[in-house]
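Section 3.1: Structural characterization of target chains.
Under the original work plan, the team committed to producing a structural model for every single-chain target entering the pipeline before any wet-lab resources were allocated. The record below documents one such target. The sequence was received from the expression subgroup and is listed exactly as submitted; it comprises 171 residues.
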Amino acid sequence: MRKHFFKQAGVTALCVSMALAGCSSPASQNSGQTAGSETTVAETEAPAETTTAAETTKPEDTEGVYTPGTYTAQADGFGGPVKVEVTVDANAITAVTVTEHQETEGVGTKAIDALPGAIVDANSVDVDDIAGATVSSTAIKTAVADALKQASGDDSQEEAALKDGTYTAEA
């Protein structure tokens, strides 16, 4: 019985060490190197070719992504419309404010408190939703995205053109 225990413990230790070796970082997997001679990826790869903005910018592209200003938009939240005010400079979102909402206090208001700052910090609406306030989060991000479309001069409506008539569907 004791022999079986040691055999099983040895097999378990071997499996654990193999699993941990597979999870180690690439820098620690440098084979054939001593501890004092680790080489990082940056040292082994040839330096990337860099291009400065002056080399790629065309004269007509110097205006920026957005027309600076403050834009408003709204989207449907859990309790009703969520209205936002988005301020941009030529290349960044500088402020996002929820100006009107009817979201549930303590639930939807968590998104109203947290998302505007996260959107400004990320300079994008591609931020995580607030847990428990998904509908409110989506409303804020949708409204901000609409305001950014206005700021970028994209006034297109991406609705499908439907012919007049009656449509039915089943699920």
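The first helix runs from residue 2 to 22.
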